[in-house]
Specification:
Arc Repressor Mutant, subunit A, DNA-binding, about 110 residues, 5 helices, globular, homodimer, alpha+beta
Chain lengths: ~110, ~110
DNA sequence: TTTGTATATTGCAATATTACGATAAAAATC
DNA sequence: GATTTTTATCGTAATATTGCAATATACAAA
């Protein structure tokens, strides 16, 4: 089929899955890393940093935006992107909780 | 095409992308949550916990195993699964570093 | 040895993702 | 206004993912 059965899972499960799915591609990880490489937001130039064609990069940026992982503001004929800190925190919080629960567990 | 161009990215980028990709499905998030719900490893019964057919669950377990996120040991005719703490820590470490770098940044 | 239980594999259909060329849109610059 | 620069969208091909029925495998118990 190819379509995910989201309706059977909780909102939280779907939310975390959407965030991790959006990060589940090396190009999108590379974009995130580039966006934190400077002290300000990154205006333009993202395409030149990646080994992919411009439409492909644009598509990856769109997916990160859809997952609310990055924000883009139009600045002249360039677009300034930065990471949405809140979404990163959501990921950290979620997996920290899991790690905490794992401390009290014994694996066979 | 559909095939990811992994060869253009760093090992670390590919590693994180593989981990997040494996977690990028609500069923696999639900499996992880079920595996931390008890104090021991979970032996059998995973299929009954999910709203999906047995082959589908088996496939999701396989993907989590391939990403080294869970470990399974055969115990009679059941299989005992538990989470690989190290992989969860890898995720936490990676995104904590990103969050730290974000603290020193100003978004436009 | 047969039966039951738990999990894996195979094969397939439906859909999603990845990637890119061509083209469009929007703004700056000449 | 024409040109350049930057990003988005469209269309399309190749491949991947999701999900399940059917079947296989492996072990336990009767």
């Amino acid at each position: 089929m190819g379509a995910t059965k989201t309706e059977h899972f909780t909102d939280k499960q779907n939310e975390i899955a959407l965030l991790t799915k959006a990060l589940g591609h090396p190009a999108r990880i590379a974009i995130v890393e580039y966006l934190i490489s400077a002290n300000n937001c990154i205006c333009g130039d993202i395409v030149n940093e990646l080994p992919l064609a411009q439409p492909t990069v644009s598509q990856h940026l769109k997916e990160l935006k859809n997952a609310d992982l990055i924000k883009g503001t139009i600045e002249g004929n360039a677009i300034c992107y930065c990471i949405n800190e809140k979404s990163i925190e959501k990921i950290i919080d979620y997996f920290l909780k899991i790690a905490t629960k794992l401390k009290n567990k014994q694996c066979c």
